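Why run this: before we spend reagent on co-expression, it is cheaper to look at a predicted model of the complex and decide which construct boundaries make sense. The entries below are exactly what would go into the expression plan.
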Amino acid sequence: MKIFNQLKDHIGLVPNPISDKTRQIHARINDASMSISVCPYCAVGCSQLVYTKDGKIIDIEGNYESPINGGTLCPKGAATWGLLHSPTRITTVKYRAPYSDHWEERSLDWAMERIAQRVKQTRDAHYEERDEHGMTVNRTLAIGHFGGATLDNEENYLIKKLFTAGLGIVAVENQARI
Ligand code: SF4
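The model came back. Tokens follow.
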């Protein structure tokens, strides 16, 4: 101890050698709000902690209190933040006309109207009340739906209700987490 004190006096060592700059460093989620959510990607349903500051999501991590994932996320779930903030994320409607070699930008209203018209036209042309054996089928095999895993339970419920029961579409596929 005597040697330590001599050394301390000699080089100006203080008992708690932390600089003011280091003291001011803190985690970026320090004063953020936290909400509990579920990873949107797959059927495992890992729980996530979503941190927001000034109305913006600043970080997403695994929920350590979840019995499913215990604070962990797989590489895909750990990249959820990128789903929102990636500069390559497409946020506008892209349209490629038949036989065209490039995409064009369209408004959402234009796309919704066109999809509605095409669905109606195709369903009217191909709707079958009975199959070749005379069985009642009330279906169309001319339209299909392919969904993604980021659709949530409520969206999948509505898709199934509208497309299958409402329009008679048989080919409804999705990587749903339900
Ligand atoms: S973190 Fe990975 S395993 Fe968990 S729900 Fe998301 S994609 Fe599935």
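The pocket of iron/sulfur cluster is lined by residues 39, 41-42, 44-46, 69, 73-74, 76-77 (CB under 6 Å). The beta strands are 33-38, 47-53, 56-62, 93-95, 104-106, 128-130, 136-146, 169-173. Bring this page to Monday's planning discussion.
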